[in-house]
Write a structure and sequence with these properties.
Blueprint (H helix, E strand, L loop, with lengths): L2 E6 L8 H16 L4 E6 L10 H8 L7 H6 L1 H11 L3 E7 L7 H10 L6 E4 L2 E4 L6 E6 L15 H12 L4 E6 L6 H18 L4
Helix pairs in contact: 1-7, 4-5
The chain binds flavin mononucleotide.
């Protein structure tokens, strides 16, 4: 059975622009696979804990040498990676916070991107151990991040692209909602562009 994992990183819950478009992606995926199992993780509202010393020590120790304390420290990471492994569609909806991902999404990343478990250290560099799968990333920004005029740097999309590729996830389709602080007109315009992107990615059948 197919399964969808949706990671919503806004702290604003139902009011979130990124989550609203993320839910549109999920709705279209569900229309194609009505029996798919849907798992939603609102990391922006219920954040995973930051990693601690016990986690850092366990992560650096090869599994064959793990003590009970190491296994305990990795329990949550293990659950989150297993959740990712069990899904064949991934949706990430996140606001831009200070030019990059919110710390809550970064905490999720720190649990799932784990050496010798979700990626291998090889002479050629880091190689992903997870299956590739279609991944839809929706980013919302209050300001401008594209175009020829004055704009701010976007560290969200290149960072997510890289970190997902380290896991082995390369089929990633990004969409950025921008200028959202400019009022309802700007929000409507961004939503219209998001629907056009959705029509290209997941046309209504
Ligand atoms: C802590 C914080 C930092 C932010 N930093 C940026 C930023 O660097 N660039 C930007 O364009 N918008 C920034 N914003 C605005 C949000 O990206 C914007 O309001 C976005 O639409 C929120 O998405 P959401 O509705 O999904 O939470 C920031 C907002 C917060 C709360």
């Amino acid at each position: 059975m197919s399964a969808i994992l949706a990671i919503y990183a806004s702290p604003r819950g139902a009011a979130s622009h990124s989550e609203r478009v993320g839910r549109m992606v999920v709705e279209r995926l569900l229309r194609r696979s009505p029996d798919a199992n849907l798992i939603i993780r609102r990391v922006g509202v219920e954040p995973p804990p930051h990693i601690d010393a016990a986690y850092a020590a366990a992560m650096e120790t090869p599994e064959a040498h793990h003590a009970a304390a190491d296994r305990q420290a990795l329990t949550r990471s293990e659950e989150m990676i297993a959740e990712l492994e069990a899904t064949d569609r991934l949706v990430i909806a996140t606001p831009m916070h200070n030019f990059t991902v919110p710390s809550t999404l970064k905490a999720w990343i720190d649990h799932v991107v784990r050496a010798r478990r979700s990626f291998a250290l090889t002479p050629r560099g880091k190689e992903g151990l997870l299956a590739d799968r279609p991944t839809y990333v929706v980013v919302s920004a209050g300001g401008v991040v594209s175009g020829d005029g004055p704009r701010q740097p976007d560290f969200v999309t290149p960072y997510l692209q890289h970190v997902l590729s380290v896991l082995g996830i390369r089929d990633v389709r990004f969409h950025i909602l921008e200028s959202l602080v400019r009022g309802p007109e700007a929000v409507h315009a961004a939503e219209r562009r998001a629907r056009a992107w959705l029509d290209l990615q997941l046309p209504e059948e």
